[in-house]
Write a structure and sequence with these properties.
Layout: E1 5-7, E2 14-16, H1 21-31, E3 36-39, E4 42-45, H2 51-76, E5 85-93, E6 97-104, E7 110-116, E8 119-123, E9 127-131, E10 134-141, E11 144-150, E12 158-165, E13 168-177
Antiparallel strand pairs: 1-2, 3-4, 5-6, 5-13, 6-7, 7-8, 9-10, 10-11, 11-12, 12-13
């Protein structure tokens, strides 16, 4: 038998070329009854393969994955719209967009929440100003700006959602207050 090593390009680990899947599984099965598993010239203690060690490894791996997922989810939506914020405006817009404008109680920060079949968007650090008797809330996300109009000159029960890219209007949706 040849103990020639085959190197894997992306990750750089190696296995003997004479190792086939069926042979490997047979070797693992045989090795569980001995104290060492031999692959080529490498001897591995079988305790690595024992059930209790694998259970501990799976528990640690699962816990680490859950922790990483929680941290990612926490920092993905830094602006919080919950019981610490007041709902200022709730609009249902054309295209299936539901838009909420919130104001945090502690800092007074304006928050934008939009849900639709196209996805959800959460933004913070908004501004508000009254223009021509109608309040407009403005939010920035990269090159995009989202303007939410609370009412129109014709009706205070209506509203408008406008999307700008590089200060040029891209989309405009009529909305109704809920």
């Amino acid at each position: 038998m040849s103990d020639e090593i085959v190197r894997s390009q992306p990750i750089g680990w190696a296995l003997p070329t004479n190792l086939h899947c069926e042979g490997f599984y047979k070797m693992v099965g045989d090795a569980l009854s001995t104290s060492f598993l031999s692959i080529g010239s490498i001897d591995l203690p079988t305790q690595i393969l024992r059930e209790d060690t694998m259970k501990a490894f799976l528990i640690r791996s699962t816990t680490l994955l859950a922790l990483a997922t929680s941290l990612i989810a926490h920092f993905a939506l830094p602006a919080k719209a919950d019981s610490t914020a007041n709902l200022l405006l709730n609009l249902q817009c054309q295209g299936g967009y539901n838009v909420n404008i919130w104001k945090t109680k502690q800092s007074g920060e304006l928050l934008y929440r939009s849900t639709s079949s196209n996805g959800n968007l959460s933004l913070g650090r908004g501004t508000s100003q009254a223009t021509e008797g109608v309040r407009v809330y403005k939010f920035q996300n990269g090159n995009y700006q989202y303007w939410v109009w609370d009412g129109t000159l014709d009706s205070q029960q209506s509203g408008t959602l406008e999307v700008y890219k590089n200060n040029a209007i891209q989309q405009q949706y009529a909305c109704t207050k809920r």
